[in-house]
Amino acid sequence: MTQTESNAYDVVVIGAGPVGENVADRTRAAGLSTAIVESELVGGECSYWACMPSKALLRPVITRDDARHTPGLDRAVRGPLDTTAVLAHRDDFTSHWKDDGQVAWVEGIGADLYRGQGRLAGPRTVEVTGPGGAALTLTARHAVAVCTGSRAALPGLPGLDAVRPWTSREATSARSAPGRLIVVGGGVVAVEMATAWQALGARVTLLVRGKGLLARMEPFAGELVAEALTGAGVEIRTGTSVDSVTRENGTVVAVTDAGDRVEADEILFATGRAPRTDDIGLETVGLEPGSWLPVDDSLLVDGHDWLYAVGDVNHRALLTHQGKYQARIAGAAIAARAAGDSPLESEPWGAHAATADHEAVPQVVFTDPEAAAVGLSLAEAEQAGHRVRAVDVDLSTVAGASLYRDGYTGRARMVVDLEDEIVRGVTFVGPGVGELIHSATIAVAGRVPVDRLWHAVPSYPTISEVWLRLLETYRDT
């Protein structure tokens, strides 16, 4: 392969998903020349195969259920969803898997876009293999940022490739609903896709290796989501592993560790993520190909003063919003170092420290009911050595919740640090609670004292009144 071109920049970003785009935006805003390299669609996993299409599939499902629990609307929405219309709605939100708009955005911030596979070729050097095999070299005066994200991790089952299993990509981009769907896993992708495809006409069987769903949240979150999925018709088998999978005459046959045969038209493995770092030249800078990249709080890769790993690749928090947060921190750190500013504001909650990755990571699971959490669960807080107390409230007792929909079922938990009298974590489960989580994130990230929260008055009658109920319960019991 012949090298045909070499271009120099202040910063080179590998990966043009939301994380890479934000790194480029922040470095360009600081006046640094920036190149961004993308091997697929500009906009990345979130735009085309994850956040946007999955939520576009789920929104009609949740809206219909809310309507079914609203007097005056319930009889109007008794029929099935229009699957064709839902899928068309999904396609609109993915821009029909075309990235023209995202490309225009990159050009609008003044970054140079290179299409092709970007690979490190030594310190501050990135080789790009473009369409047709054309090659060029990009050099970075100050920083290279690896923002290549993660991919679905499939188990090492013999013959799995021949089965053509779904991953999250196929699950969010399928052109029609399968008649029967096996979902393997109990995490976020598993429960969201089980929710969506069951409502769109599939008969879903959920095979969960662990004891329950959403194991990283408070136990009641998984319990309430499981109860709702079961009520919607999903069959959930916990404590179940898949020993083998075959496709026989078009039918998928999964054999469990108990020897049971489960048949379906498609099988989705939602069993974890792996870093997309296996073909980006890590070996040329002394790093292991295919590995997660450990970083400090400024997102600088351990042992390197020019290499940053931002987003999923550093394995700190595999969430788009946290990756974008890290990108803002990394962009500021790159700009400060390029300007010779020393020392960086690297203390906790400083301008160049991704402290929220440790203490205030929010997440929403868009099932019905929704599950939302930020900070530490009760178990995590206790394991971390904090002296804490958990306060629970039944959300059905909140006036705004009962107005939101008839028969509202949900629960809230606030974990309070008894030494500092601050909130360490909050979990909400119930319809519409995703819109509550930012208030909890502010309380946790801001380390707002409980006695100050008394003066944050929730509007009546909204579900936000749960904050008052939590504080009253903490005070009175």
Summarize the structure.
The chain has helices at 18-29, 44-49, 51-68, 83-93, 100-108, 160-163, 168-173, 188-199, 219-232, 320-338, 356-359, 378-383, 399-404, 437-445, 450-453, 466-476; strands at residues 3-14, 34-38, 112-115, 117-120, 125-129, 135-146, 150-152, 180-184, 203-207, 235-237, 242-248, 251-256, 261-264, 266-269, 273-275, 307-309, 362-365, 370-375, 388-394, 411-417, 422-430. The chain is of the alpha/beta class.
Report on the structure:
The chain has 477 residues and is an alpha/beta fold. Helices cover 32% and strands 25% of the residues. The protein has 16 helices and 21 strands. It has helices spanning 18-29, 44-49, 51-68, 83-93, 100-108, 160-163, 168-173, 188-199, 219-232, 320-338, 356-359, 378-383, 399-404, 437-445, 450-453, 466-476; strands at residues 3-14, 34-38, 112-115, 117-120, 125-129, 135-146, 150-152, 180-184, 203-207, 235-237, 242-248, 251-256, 261-264, 266-269, 273-275, 307-309, 362-365, 370-375, 388-394, 411-417, 422-430. A hairpin with a 2-residue loop joins β11 and β12 (251-256). It is globular, with a radius of gyration of 24 Å. The model has no long low-confidence stretch (mean pLDDT 96).
